[in-house]
């Protein structure tokens, strides 16, 4: 985009929703990108374009804008909602500078860990054109929405279809995942939840599956500089205390779904930036 033009888009972000099944197996929620977005047919985690209006009053805080956008893109592309009180559990993941479209320091990756199998409602209507229905068939464990799968991170890194920009965050997560889980479960009386069978996932809700662990560890987070959390947050099991686990359950959609972005199409925004067009 030319220097004389008003710049609307200033960066980009990736949002990585991981799953630790308690058996030292780590999964990432991914989809296959459609022909209407860049790097079509590649396997990717959710992500999107960061608009200047998201970056603070003067539009200069790209990190802030990327964080807000990452949460929105996760909701729009998967239906999984991270509630406001859980946002502190996000952690930053490393970036390969060569994949930052707007230059070094303009792309940010964020991670979030589940210790149970969550419900994935699927993309919002305005995001359906960005992902391929059935694109993840026979790869990993189907998330149940027809678009996404939970794929073992190690297997994913061996897949040639994985988008190059996703490799470094995945490799780094494998390094820190054991320490993340260890801190969560050694600082509480919790036991690591065993991986449910396929039948369990089909016939049990995430709420039921989560309660099997006794004490339910909802999220883990890492502080800045890609460190390991010193005091991860945990929540009690719904079966013990009556507390309802917070995740992207369908019954929560109406109450916790923010308003849609007026121009939330990553594909159109990317195409506009690529062509140097003003909107």
Automatic annotation (TrEMBL):
Residues 8-175 form the Nudix hydrolase domain. Residues 248-257 have a biased composition (Basic and acidic residues). Signal peptide: none annotated. PROSITE patterns: NUDIX. Residues 188-279 are annotated as: Disordered. Coiled coil: none annotated. InterPro entries: NUDIX_hydrolase-like_dom_sf, NUDIX_hydrolase_dom. Gene3D superfamilies: Nucleoside Triphosphate Pyrophosphohydrolase. This is REV1 protein. Residues 235-244 have a biased composition (Polar residues).
């Amino acid at each position: 985009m030319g220097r004389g033009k008003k710049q609307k888009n200033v960066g980009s972000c990736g949002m990585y929703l991981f799953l630790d099944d308690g058996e030292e197996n780590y999964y990432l929620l991914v989809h296959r990108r459609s022909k209407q977005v860049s790097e079509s047919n590649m396997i990717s985690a959710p992500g999107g374009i960061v608009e200047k209006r998201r970056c603070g009053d003067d539009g200069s805080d790209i990190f802030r804008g990327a964080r807000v956008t990452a949460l929105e893109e996760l909701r729009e592309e998967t239906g999984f909602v991270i509630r406001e009180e859980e946002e502190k559990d996000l952690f930053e993941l490393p970036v390969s500078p060569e994949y930052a479209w707007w230059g070094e320091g303009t792309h940010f990756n964020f991670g979030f860990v589940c210790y149970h199998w969550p419900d994935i409602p699927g993309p919002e209507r305005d995001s359906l054109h960005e992902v391929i229905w059935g694109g993840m068939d026979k790869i990993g464990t189907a998330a149940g929405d027809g678009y996404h799968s939970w794929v073992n991170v190690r297997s994913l890194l061996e897949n040639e279809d994985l988008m190059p920009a996703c490799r470094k965050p995945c490799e780094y997560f494998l390094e820190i995942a054991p320490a993340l889980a260890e801190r969560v479960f050694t600082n509480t009386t919790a036991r690591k939840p065993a991986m449910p069978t396929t039948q369990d996932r089909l016939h049990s809700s995430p709420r039921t599956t989560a309660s099997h662990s006794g004490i339910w560890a909802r999220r883990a987070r890492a502080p800045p500089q890609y460190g390991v959390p010193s005091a991860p947050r945990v929540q009690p099991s719904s079966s013990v205390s009556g507390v309802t686990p917070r995740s992207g359950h369908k019954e929560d959609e109406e109450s916790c779904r923010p308003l849609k972005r007026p121009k939330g199409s990553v594909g159109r925004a990317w195409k506009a930036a690529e062509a140097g067009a003003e909107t």
